[in-house]
Amino acid sequence: MRCWLARTAERPTDAYASAPLRDTHGGGAGWLAAWRQAHKPARGAAMALAGAFDPDGEPAWASLLLLPRDARVRFDDTAVQRARQRILAEDAFDVVSTLVHDASTFAGSLVAARGDGGAARVCDDPFAVVERPEIVQVGPGLLAAHTALPAPTIERYGSSHPWPGGRFT
User: Fold this and answer.
1) How far is CA 19 from CA 2, 9, 69, 147, in A?
2) Nearest-angstrom CA–CA distance, 53 and 66
């Protein structure tokens, strides 16, 4: 089953998990929602790592990078690869998921951290080398406790799965 992530203006009633977003000044910034289903549930939705989401999840600070559909950044772009290397080397985040549209296109990322220094940690999001992400507070009900990071992978075969999935099927 695929997992989809999308930012919405209102809380979706059919999502597996969802949480309100707040900007860095505390203002409302819409909702972030995850669905577990075969087909794309909303405009702008991208595939994400299912293990990154939990309807019982605690709030967190997040760096959210949602590229426009026509951006066409490839996973083997050196900026994306360098960001992934930093994620693996530093292991500084509670939740990490890339976002994908298809087998080779990087659609963005979600990097989240909790606790003291969580906001500062997400401000140093390695994926910011691709494009400037938005820093948001994610309310309760969306993010998992922790995303386990795998060993480095190559996506050329079976790459339609968001990283950091443990293994390709």
Assistant:
1) 19, 11, 23, 18
2) 17
Before 164, cis peptide (omega within 30)? Answer: yes
Q: What is the percent of the chain where pLDDT is above 70?
A: 87
- φ/ψ of 86, rounded to 5, equals -65, -40
Task: Name residue, tokens 């659609």.
Answer: 107
In this structure, are residues 22 and 137 in contact, taking their beta carbons and an 8 Å threshold?
Answer: yes
Say which residue the tokens 């494009």 belong to.
Answer: 131
Q: Phi, psi (5° rounding) for residue 163?
A: -85, 145
Q: How many Cβ atoms from other residues are within 10 Å of residue 2's Cβ?
A: 17
pLDDT (tens digit per residue) in 99-128: 998 888 899 999 999 998 999 999 999 999
Residue of 168 and 47 predicted with greater confidence:
47
Report which DSSP code applies to 37: S
**In which element (H, E) is residue 47 found?**
strand 46-47
Residue 82 has phi, psi (to 5 degrees) of: -65, -40
Q: How many CA atoms lie within 13 A of 77 on its CB side?
A: 17
Q: Which of 143, 140, 169, 144 is nearest to 157 (CA)?
A: 169
